[in-house]
Design brief:
alpha/beta; Rossmann fold; 4-stranded parallel sheet; 34% helix; binds N-carbamoyl-L-aspartate
Length: 340
């Protein structure tokens, strides 16, 4: 794939070498993300961060990634603050805002909206989540994390065994992650959800067509026994017609330390796109896992910055110039990046 000037809308755009390219560039971003070096390669560039749905880590990590490359961020959050509330179309909004930025990161509650916006944009658009459809940058950071966690255990992404748990119907992160896994080989996927929240059939088909072994289940404990990764997700309550309907599913699958100890193989990696729902009625990942060294959720969020930096440098075609515009940091940075 040609990255320079491209939108990043869907995992369908990626071939395996493209993924490898993103990961190699992400690796090279570590000195900057971990505050050992500073680069000004995007000095003068502007990111338009347009988040029309709640977001903390996706919005802030896109912004931090851009800042770490020396660029500036302009944010629009929520419909009420934007002219969309006055009836402006996505087309007009895209024509206008792409005149103010060099690249745009966007999240929107409607499936297909980010692609519609991108079609009218004059600059590259990165999809930060469009309804329950896709979240391609999250899938890339998830796979980047999986690859790092497995390689620390002497394993590879090919022949991975993974359980995805929770709201597989509305969870866009697992939709994109499944599509991404189709580029690899011999993967065993266990899809654990209530029947009503199963993974969409077309995605299950894609996994099978890629030669992967797919099992659908409604039982957590038997499904997490022989996997390398347990990828837990939140019930996407904002996509249900009522809170009462979401209440039916919240708290259905809870992983805590005692279930982990009893049912998982040692060193099974625990992941979650976050936010985890820590209310007593949900707790899909209990706080008592916080000291478990295999809990990779905060390594995922740290990795998100590396992967988003890589995507910015690729679509803006500066990946080769980053180090030329760099120097060492001059302040105390401590040891806060002591993950894998
Ligand atoms: C997810 C999302 O917004 O799709 N979060 C994220 O981007 N890291 C998952 C969620 O909200 O449950």
């Amino acid at each position: 794939m040609q990255f320079a000037g491209s939108h990043i809308l869907s995992i369908a755009q990626f071939e395996r070498p493209d993924v490898e390219r993103v990961f190699a560039v992400a690796d090279s971003m570590e000195p900057y993300a971990h505050r050992r070096r500073v680069t000004k390669v995007l000095d003068g560039a502007i990111l338009g961060a347009m988040f029309f749905e709640p977001s903390t880590r996706t919005r802030v990590s896109f912004g931090s990634a851009f800042n770490l490359l020396g660029g500036e961020v302009r944010e629009t959050t929520g419909f009420e603050q934007s002219a969309i509330a006055k009836g402006e179309s996505l087309y007009d909004t895209a024509r206008v805002l792409s005149g103010y930025s060099d690249v745009i990161a966007m999240r929107h509650p409607q499936e297909g909206s980010v692609a519609e916006f991108a079609a009218a944009s004059r600059v590259p658009v990165l999809n930060g989540g469009d309804g329950s459809n896709e979240h391609p940058t999250q899938a890339l950071l998830d796979l980047y994390t999986i690859r790092k966690e497995l390689s620390a255990r002497g394993r590879d992404v090919d022949r991975l065994r993974i359980a995805m748990v929770g709201d597989l119907r509305f969870g866009r992160t697992v939709h994109s992650l499944c599509k991404l896994l189709c580029l690899f080989q011999g993967i065993q996927v266990v899809l654990v959800s209530p029947v009503e929240l199963r993974m969409p059939g077309d995605i299950v088909e894609q996994l099978r067509a890629a030669g992967h072994d797919v099992l659908e289940s409604e039982a957590l404990e038997s499904s997490i026994r022989h996997v390398d990764i347990v990828y837990s997700t939140r019930i996407q309550e904002e996509r249900f017609s009522s809170q009462q309907e979401a209440d039916l599913y919240r708290g259905r699958f809870r992983l805590n330390q005692s279930i982990y100890t009893e049912h998982c193989e040692p060193n099974t990696v625990i992941m979650h796109p976050l936010p985890r729902d820590s209310r007593v009625t949900a707790r899909e990942l209990d706080d008592d896992l916080n000291d478990n060294p295999n809990l990779a959720i905060f390594r995922q969020t740290d990795n998100g910055v590396l992967v988003r930096m890589a995507l910015f440098t690729l679509v803006l075609d500066v990946a080769e110039q980053v180090h030329r515009h760099a120097r060492d940091v001059n302040w105390y940075t401590g040891g806060r990046f002591d993950g894998l």
